[in-house]
Specification:
The longest helix is centred in the last third of the chain and has 30 residues. Strand 5 and strand 6 form a beta hairpin. Strands 1, 2, 3, 4, 5, 6, 7, 8, 9, 10 and 11 form an eleven-stranded antiparallel beta sheet that branches. 31% of the residues lie in helices and 26% in strands. By secondary structure, the chain is an alpha+beta fold. The protein has seven helices and eleven strands.
């Protein structure tokens, strides 16, 4: 394990889950994560057993697969909104009602230290947080982790297991993982978003997602042009309303 820390280092990565129904989907996502380099979370991509016919019942999450949230400097608590749990596992409703979105469905912010055995441990001095994540040990106890050799795995869902904290992020079919890392991988922020929407946004606004420096003059020109266009639209709507009121 690389324990050398460069506090100035930081970078962002997008990991595409793609088609979760493919037999090698786990290997496909794991390879992308491994190519990032060292991450103290020691992420492992795994599959759950088939829960496709259970997630339609929101109560399933409360009984067998509870999700948890822990805001900054607060105690962890179960996610009470079972609709939110269902969305984290499927993204179905968001994709139907708001196809272009930047909703975060599962999230983890974590910093790590080096333990006595040289392995990474969760930092106790800095605040960590997570949102809509499961507990790995709880999934194991409830028999929800698939062994591909014997179990029928879920064809539409992968899981991202943080082997250091024990948190598990849900990776629905066609989702994407945004990983921001700093301090040579000893700090990270991981968000699961709708990969279909993200791909569409990257196609529409490529300059927002590339690494090239932003020209402030060009950016201000674009902002002013958009403001002018918005003012014209608002003015037109106002004129139309005025005409209707005087009829």
């Amino acid at each position: 394990m690389n324990t050398a820390v460069n506090t100035e280092s930081s970078s962002s990565y997008i990991v595409w889950v793609g088609n979760a129904t493919m037999h090698d989907a786990v290997e496909h996502v794991q390879e992308q994560i491994d190519n990032i380099g060292f991450l103290a979370a020691c992420y492992e991509v795994i599959r759950p057993v088939c829960i496709r016919y259970c997630v339609s019942s929101r109560r399933y999450f409360k009984r067998y697969m509870p999700l948890y949230s822990q805001p900054d400097n607060e105690r962890e608590r179960p996610v009470a909104d079972l609709q939110q749990c269902w969305e984290a596992a499927t993204m179905d409703e968001m994709r139907e009602n708001q196809p272009i979105n930047m909703q975060t469905f599962s999230y983890e912010f974590a910093t790590f230290d080096v333990g006595k055995n040289g392995r990474s441990i969760e930092s106790r001095e800095l605040s960590n947080s997570h949102w809509a994540t499961a507990h790995y040990e709880e999934l194991v106890e409830n028999g929800l982790i698939s062994d591909d050799r014997y179990d029928e795995y879920d064809p539409m869902l992968l899981l991202l297991h943080d082997r250091t904290t024990g948190n598990v992020l849900l990776l629905p079919d066609q989702s994407a993982i945004i990983i921001n890392q700093w301090s040579s991988g000893w700090g990270m922020e991981t968000s699961v978003v709708d990969g279909i929407s993200l791909s569409e946004l990257m196609g529409r606004y490529p300059t927002l997602f590339d690494d090239s420096p932003v020209d402030e003059c060009d950016m201000m020109s674009e902002i002013l042009a958009l403001e002018e266009q918005l003012n014209r639209i608002c003015g037109s709507l106002y004129d139309n309303n005025q005409k209707k009121e005087h009829k």
